[in-house]
Amino acid sequence: MYTPEIYKNENQEEIKKFLQENSFGILINQSNGKLCATHIPLELEINKEGEDILYGHISKENPQWKGFTDNDQILAVFSGPHSYISSSWYDHENVPTWNYIAVHVYGKIKIIEGEGVIESLKKLVDKYEQNSENPIRIEDLSQKTMLQSRGIVAFEIEITEIQATRKMSQNRDAKNYQTIITALEKTNTDQSIATAKEMKKCPI
């Protein structure tokens, strides 16, 4: 991912937090000579060896998984808040641009089988059910329902490289930076509000 130096994020704790909060990503690999991509949750965790990994699963009906054994190289793409930035908001002439946060994770994928499949599902369900009024637990589902787990391919991704971009108008002076935040708030869309909130975390 091309990222000018000023927009590079190399704060590992910040990147990990971002991945945990924006885990719905795009899994990209090559299968049968074609690039394939699937939108799925890809969860960050630490394995038994103390290394950061991603885990997830896709449907066996999805032919993308057949490429995992031929070529284990993958790219996972994660996006955060983003919004159009009008140059009319500046106190000088310039071109419009776009503010955004993105993280690209490169790694090696391997298929998980046996009890590891159920354990992977359990971790995923427990994470997203924790705020439910009546949380579902994998352990409580019937054998008939759990037969559906035979229709998925679970996997882990050994992370080999992370590239992170945080483009939030860092190249502007304090006055214009604040003007952009105000204009984003006035635009009043979910993304513009989220982008303004992100900019407020690191004021110039």
From TrEMBL:
Protein name, UniProt field: FMN-binding negative transcriptional regulator
The organism of origin for this protein: Flavobacterium sandaracinum
Top-level lineage group: Bacteria
Pfam families, per the entry: FMN_bind_2
